[in-house]
Amino acid sequence: MKKLLLSLSFAITAICAQAQSLAVGSDLPMKDIKMKDVSGKEVSIKDAMKDNGVLVMFSCNTCPYVIKNQQRTLDIAAYAKQNNIGIILLNSNEGTRDGDDSYTAMKAYAQKQGYDFYYTVDTDSKIANAFGATRTPELFLFDANAKLQYKGAIDDNPNDAGNVKRVHAKEAINELTAGKSISVKESRSVGCSIKRS
């Protein structure tokens, strides 16, 4: 019984550690780790950074929330680029890497969606674990000094694009590039759980 309780304690600790989300103000973790992009190149988050920072998004090919929010993903990526902020999407679904989230499926999905930014394989969910990312889609916006300024959802209504009142990520980009403090630093990410191995 004691061994069982000890095993459960370790399992709960591991789950809690994995779910510990990166705090606003934190340094960008694992920024030099190379990941395979759909272009065939090996790239890191640091490679994606531009003068004003980088927007990191955990995504995939199959989550209904990712699919439903696809135009919003394209819009915020374009807005980030217009504001000299790099963009990189990471697929951390290691548990479905041999199926719908395979590298081949990622390439086809990126082509179909017209991605003109990095979409990479997060092998063994290493980057997701370092960020404490739990959902797809989930965003992390870093400034030029690689400090986390915003994390969460693209906007305030992932379920209904027609009833969005505030695009949190866009406002965070506006405030960041204007040198202002980010007024909404966190929002709740709504989507599918990352399928870790």
Describe this structure in words.
Helix content is 34%, strand content 18%. The chain is an alpha+beta fold and 197 residues long. The strands form two sheets. A seven-stranded mixed β-sheet has the order 2-1-5-4-3-7-8. A two-stranded antiparallel ribbon has the order 6-9. The two termini are 28 Å apart.
Describe the protein's topology.
Elements: H1 2-19, E1 35-37, E2 42-43, H2 45-48, E3 54-59, H3 64-68, H4 70-82, E4 86-91, H5 103-113, E5 118-121, H6 126-131, E6 135-136, E7 138-142, E8 148-152, H7 168-177, E9 192-193
Parallel strand pairs: 3-4, 4-5
Antiparallel strand pairs: 1-2, 1-5, 3-7, 6-9, 7-8
Short recap of the structure:
It is built from 7 helices and 9 strands, in the order αββαβααβαβαβββαβ. The chain is an alpha+beta fold.
Beta-strand residue percentage: 15-25%
The CATH architecture is: 3-Layer(aba) Sandwich
Report the total helices.
7
- Annotated CATH homologous superfamily: Glutaredoxin
List keywords for this structure.
7 helices; single chain; 197 residues; 7-stranded mixed beta sheet; Glutaredoxin; disordered N terminus; two-stranded antiparallel sheet; alpha+beta
